[in-house]
Amino acid sequence: MEVVTPLAEIVEEIKEAGGEAFKYCFQCGKCDVVCPWNKVRPFSIRKIVWQATLGLPEIELDEIWRCTTCGMCPAACPRGVEQIEVGVAIRRIATAYDVFPSSVEAFSAAGASLAGDGNPLGEERDSRDAWTEGLSIKPFEEGMEILFFVGCYYSYDPRLRKAAMATADILKKAGVDFGILGNRESCCGESIRKTGNEDVFKSLARENIKAFIDNGVKRVLVASPHCYHTFKNEYPEFMVNFEVVHISEFLQELIEQGRLEISGEYKKKVTFHDPCYLGRHNGIYDQPRNVLKKLPGLELFEMPDNREKSLCCGGGGGRIWAETPKEERFSDLRVAQAVEVGAEVLATSCPYCISNFEESVLSLDGDTKLEVRDITEVLHEALNGNGGAS
Predict the structure, then answer these.
(1) What's the pTM value of the predicted model, to 2 decimals?
(2) How far, CA to CA in Å, does 341 sit from each of 29, 126, 157, 234, 370?
(3) CB-side exposure of 234: number of CA atoms within 13 Å?
(4) Is residue 375 a contact partner of residue 291, using CB atoms and an 8 Å limit?
(5) 28 vs 47, 55, 64, 226, CA distance in Å?
(6) What's the CA gap between 5 and 9, in Å, rounded?
(7) What is the C-alpha separation between 235 and 229, in angstroms, rounded?
(8) What CATH number is given for 263-383 in this structure?
(9) Is 221 within 8 Å of 205 (Cβ atoms)?
């Protein structure tokens, strides 16, 4: 049997990058049992943690880039190994040496776009608020009730702009005094941080924090769970704290306060998908369901793997920028689950989930129909009387 001597200098480098918890692992394998990758192909996060323990991470291979940071393995781990932090620490080393296999070359391009224009999509910063044309949406000013932090995908992606428009119209109907930052807004930086690019994350965070402080922002409304997570849990590392509210929480608040009157119906069968960064990472499960349950005529069904056990869409950890072979897409499995419970609408509240599900429904049998909707779109259709049966 070959004896492997740990490479002490690499072990220390992983520790310094934030992955020290690998030392608690006793290789029980529970992480591999719950990992969604093993529903579509073999993958072992346990092996990656073991390699970190030995100081032998294979940074040139695809494996360290597969983790979607869904949160299933740390939730199952009996030893508090913090597999996500270990994986990100290894990615930081790879990023520092500019080692990206061809499958994740897009991570490097996303980082360059974020550094240059504040978004990962290669779009111009000055067109960040182009979706508001003709909608009379105000720039945020100090004293307003809340800042609507739109986010990159809701600002630029043609499909997701529809959800941003629905959100803005709902806020207007509820009489919310809100505004946006427009081109003063930068990406929250959550996903680029998970790819290991700490420098770009810190730069984006500082830009947003400065914009918040300069404009007197106290309360921030976000539509993306990734923005929610990083503002709430990671920006405090910079010694700031802003009140952060996810749109599902705010909609429930508006309904409970009587500011949003729902008179229309939504006569469709709906199932709700819990995004990883809304549910497992931040414990928001009831609020989006409570909003949906307020819509007259809506029938709500639960899929297998719901709430704490929700099946990842595959877009976290920067994977939204990677090209995933069709046979390895978690989103295809999730869409199939929605169809199996008889849903006409697959509702969620995350731009990555929506993007992946929209791609997956294209592969459904021609006779099978499934609509993918942000919960704001579902509510907006009901408010406007467009929620009739399919």
Answers:
(1) 0.94
(2) 31, 43, 29, 37, 11
(3) 25
(4) yes
(5) 11, 20, 20, 30
(6) 12
(7) 9
(8) 3.40.50.10700
(9) no
**322 close to 291: Cβ distance less than 8 angstroms:** no
Whole-angstrom Cα distance, residue 37 to residue 313?
11
The C-alpha atoms of residue 296 and residue 266 are separated, in whole angstroms, by 6
For 139-192, the pLDDT digits (tens) are: 999 999 999 999 999 999 999 999 999 999 999 999 999 999 999 999 999 999
Q: Name the token pair of 325.
A: 């072979």
CATH of 114-254, one of 2.40.128, 3.40.50, 3.30.40, 3.30.2310: 3.40.50
Q: Which two tokens stand for residue 233?
A: 């849990």
The neighbour count for residue 164, using CB atoms within 10 Å, is: 26
pLDDT tens digits, one per residue of 74-115: 999 999 899 999 999 999 999 988 999 999 999 999 999 999
Is 315 in contact with 266 (CB distance < 8 Å)?
no
Q: Which of 186, 124, 131, 129 is nearest to 162 (CA)?
A: 131
* Cα 38 to Cα 226: distance, rounded to the nearest angstrom: 24
Domain ranges of the chain: 8-99, 114-254, 263-383
Residue 255 identity: I
